[in-house]
Amino acid sequence: MQTENPLEVDLQTVKQKLDQNEDFVLLDCREQDEFDLVHIHQAQLLPMSLIEQKVSELDGQQDKEIIVYCHHGSRSLMVTKWLLGNGFNQVKSMAGGIDLWAEQIDSEMTRY
C-alpha cells in the first residue's frame, strides 16, 4: 500500500474543492503548449520553467491554499517544494497530475 505524501493531495479532494467553489489557487506548472492542449478550467498557468521570474503573479497569496499540478506529478512536486521554500505556507501537489485527472475525473479530456 502506498503511503500518503504530506506534500500531495489526491484528485478526489481537488475535485471536491472545485465543486464546492472553495477559495484556493489551482496552479498548472506545465508549459504553455501543454496548457493550450488541455487544462483544468479553473487553473492558472505558471510554468515551472518560469517560476522564479513570474512568482510575483502569486503576490499576496502566500497564506492561501495552492494546489499545483502538471502532467503526472513530478514537476508539480518540485514546484510545491520550491514554493514552500520561498514563503508560501499551504502548497500541495496534485498526485497523478492531469493525466490521472483525465483518466479518473474527466474522461472527455485530451490525454497525451
Question: Could you describe the 3D structure shown?
Answer:
The chain is of the alpha/beta class and 112 residues long. It has a single domain (8-104), classed as Oxidized Rhodanese, domain 1 (3-Layer(aba) Sandwich), CATH 3.40.250. It is 34% helix and 16% strand. The protein has a 5-stranded parallel sheet. Strand 2, helix 2 and strand 3 form a beta-alpha-beta unit. The relative contact order is 0.23. The model has no long low-confidence stretch (mean pLDDT 95).
List its traits.
112 residues; alpha/beta; Oxidized Rhodanese, domain 1; five-stranded parallel beta sheet; 5 helices; 16% strand; globular
Topology of this protein?
Layout: E1 8-9, H1 11-19, E2 25-28, H2 32-37, E3 44-45, H3 51-54, E4 65-69, H4 74-84, E5 90-94, H5 97-104
Parallel strand pairs: 1-5, 2-3, 2-4, 4-5
DSSP strand (E) fraction? 15-25%
Ends apart, CA distance between termini: 27 Å
**Derived structural class:** alpha/beta
Number of structural units classed as domains: 1
Annotated CATH topology = Oxidized Rhodanese, domain 1
Q: Which regions are unreliable across 5 or more consecutive residues at pLDDT < 50? A: none
Classified by CATH, the class is: Alpha Beta
Reading the helices and strands in chain order gives EHEHEHEHEH
Shape: globular
What proportion of the residues is helical, as a percent range? 25-40%
Using the 3D structure, state the CATH architecture.
Answer: 3-Layer(aba) Sandwich
**What is the mean predicted local confidence, pLDDT?**
95
Indicate the radius of gyration in whole angstroms: 13 Å
Biggest pleated sheet: 5 strands, parallel
The CATH superfamily label reads Rhodanese-like domain
How do the strands of the widest beta sheet line up side by side? 1-5-4-2-3
